[in-house]
Amino acid sequence: MEIHDARFVVSNSDYKKCPSPDIPEYAFIGRSNVGKSSLINMLTGRKNLAKISGTPGKTRLINHFKINDSWYLVDLPGYGFAKISKTIRNEWEKMLQDYLLHRINLKNTFILIDSRLKPQNNDLGFISWFGENNLPFVILFTKSDKPSKAIMNSNLETYKNILAEMWEEIPVSIITSARTGKGKAEILSMIETLNQNFKR
Ligand code: GDP
Asked: At what angle do helices 184-196 and 36-44 cross, to 10 degrees?
């Protein structure tokens, strides 16, 4: 699939106000600085598309982009913020959980993990929450052009071992780089397949 049209639609703080769920939807989430904006821009072939979600006031919102007039890409800015108050964090987590649990056209969530880092507790906590709630997800390891092969393999191995303890089958993951375009074809082809199976 080629993306020939990508446009910002709307930002919401309540999943009930999101656009009518009549086309399939895919969410992208990860801790800030994981490389989410870069990856969304790489996938859509736009320089600044995801910048909209990073502008003040939009960083705690559910941001919808319409792609090829046929599916939504949803930018869900970070979880596990270190520097925000507990009240705001709780509000954000509630909004996020409501969206993830109740958005009926959400076909998959791409959980972004920085391939340079050893497994982080908040990433693992988030991933296991998906498992507990039976929600479909795929892990995207970001910035794969950065670490040496040895560090990369060691981090991936550690992840696989931890995930193997949590699940009978290790969750699907894709290695990506916004810089080289690695992973783009695989992600878009996965979305294309899921789009074909979408029933209203
Ligand atoms: P966000 O906060 O998750 O949206 O992260 P950004 O997309 O803004 O990226 C955070 C930093 O990581 C920026 O300095 C990017 O240039 C850098 N970055 C993002 N993706 C990649 C990548 O694939 N490779 C490399 N080498 N750097 C990246």
From this structure: 70
pLDDT at residue 167 in the model = 85
- Residue 189: C-alpha distances to residues 54, 63, 82, 122, 159 (Å): 27, 22, 35, 29, 24
Instruction: Band the pLDDT of 79: cuts 50, 70, 90.
Output: low
Nearest residue (by CA) to ligand 1, atom 9, is 35
The ligand 1 atom at the shortest distance from the C-alpha of residue 177 is 23
- Tokens 């964090």 belong to residue: 89
Q: Could you tell me the residue ranges of all domains in the chain?
A: 6-196
How far does the centroid of ligand 1 lie from the alpha carbon of residue 44, in Å?
A: 15
Coil, strand or helix at 91: helix
Question: Helix, strand, or coil here: 190?
Answer: helix
What would the mean pLDDT of 43-57 be, rounded to a whole number? 77
- The answer, as to whether pTM is greater than 0.85, is yes
Question: Which architecture does CATH list for 6-196?
Answer: 3-Layer(aba) Sandwich (3.40)
